Amino acid sequence: MGRGKIEIKKIENLNSRQVTFSKRRNGLLKKARELSVLCDAEVAVIIFSGTGKLYEYSSTSMEHTLARYGNGLDLECREHHIDDSGVESDNVNAMKEEIERLHLSFLQMMGKELDGLTFKELQNLEHQLNEGILSVKHKKEQVLLEQLKRSRMQEQEAMLENEALRKQIEEFGRSKSQRFMEFNHSERKLGPFKSSRPNYAEDDNELSETSLQLGLSSDYHRKSKASKRNESVCNDSASQVASE
Length: 244
Description:
mainly alpha, SRF-like, two-stranded antiparallel sheet, 77% helix, 4% strand
């Protein structure tokens, strides 16, 4: 009867784990010794147990094997770096070639460096240029339509603002007319109760306007105002004496 497979996972039981470790450690060291003898290989094994205890085996010496291992790592890193440098160099060359090709294509699109092109290549270049011109025209039309649309929207907004301002002006005019009518109505009601004394302000205004029209001096204007007021005072005094 064959031996059953053992599931590879951590053994939870401490005693069983310790027994398994001892058996498999001895088996691993035995296999390492057999490999070094049978195949004339330099073998080194380093084992740390779960408690931190060290177990090691080397077919020559551990220091020699570790030094050789370090040299092997350095050599492998140098080879890997050389391989990477070669790959990078190939990538750089490919990128340079692509840049040169694109630059030549750009010059040909500008109508330069056309020597050496066949008739078929010239036809293809002409076709590409025609397609580019059509794309540019289409884009230009789209930009113009968008600008026209924005202009119409701005015009509509301006018209709405003008209409709102016109309504405000009309409302202001109506309110002003209404206040003027109410003022005239109140003046008519208070007409019989107004004072019979002359209105010096109106006379002064009329005299001022007349003086300005005739080009009279300011001194003459003041003298006229003073004489007019004196005459009015005299008239008031005479009327009071007559009444007494």
